[in-house]
Amino acid sequence: MSASVHLICGSTGAGKTTYAMALGTKASAMHFSIDAWMVGLFAVDMPTPPDWPWISARVLRCEAQILTTAIELHRIGVSSVLDIALLRADRRREIADTLKSANVAMQFHLLDVSATERWRRVSARNQDKGETFHLAVSRGMFDFIETLWQLPTQDELAVWERAGPVVKAGASH
Predict the structure, then answer these.
(1) What are the counts of helices (DSSP H) followed by strands (DSSP E) for the chain?
(2) Whole-prediction pTM
(3) Separation between Cα atoms, residue 79 and residue 68, nearest integer Å
(4) Which of 71, 108, 113, 170 is buried deepest, with most CB atoms within 10 A?
């Protein structure tokens, strides 16, 4: 099996990290979690209350480093799973263009789960603080992220399908 970069797309609570961890094991791939990077690198410095421009700038820097590392891993034959949410269509397009220009094989995984179910999962994760817990997500944070989330359209999915396989998982509406 040749190396591939797996892109995990879904909003908060869709099950991205759980899915990415399982996929990483199955595909013998390096798992990159934006939540783990953000908490590990920046949580101690995060302003209170959270400031979206501050967070966004750091997310973009982490994503850029994760992408660079995934491309380098691909070059030496190691697959990666990018658990970076991919909330917006424009950002997904930028990442796809970067991978395509680096001649990286990619696979897009969409976790499409209803907002009601995702909030239920987030609430449970906040309480349980299990394996995929990195930080508590308040209802306000969840609702804000919902304003950013853009479910891929059929046209966008068709573009991804031309780049590589598309896997749809977790549908529940």
Answers:
(1) 7, 5
(2) 0.88
(3) 13
(4) 108
In contact, 4 and 70? CB cutoff 8 Å? no
Closest CA to 70 of 30, 40, 109: 30
Residue located via tokens 């609430």: 123
Task: Identify which of 115, 20, 10 has the alpha carbon closest to the alpha carbon of residue 66.
Answer: 20
Beta carbons of 6 and 29 less than 8 angstroms apart: yes
- Could you tell me the CA-to-CA distances from 31 to 26, 49, 88, 130, 165 in Å, in that order? 11, 30, 21, 18, 19
| 164 and 172 Cβ atoms separated by less than 8 Å | no
Q: How far apart are CA 150 and CA 165, in angstroms?
A: 20
Query: What own/partner pairs with CB < 8 Å and gap ≥ 24 does 41-46 have?
Result: 43/135
- What are the distances in angstroms from CA 104 to CA 10, 21, 57, 68, 82? 22, 21, 25, 11, 13
Task: Note the pLDDT tens digit of each residue in 125-153.
Answer: 888 777 777 777 878 888 998 999 999 99
The token pair that represents 155 in the structure block: 């046209």
Nearest Cα to Cα of residue 166 among 114, 98, 108: 108
Give yes or no for a cis peptide into 152 (omega within 30° of 0): no
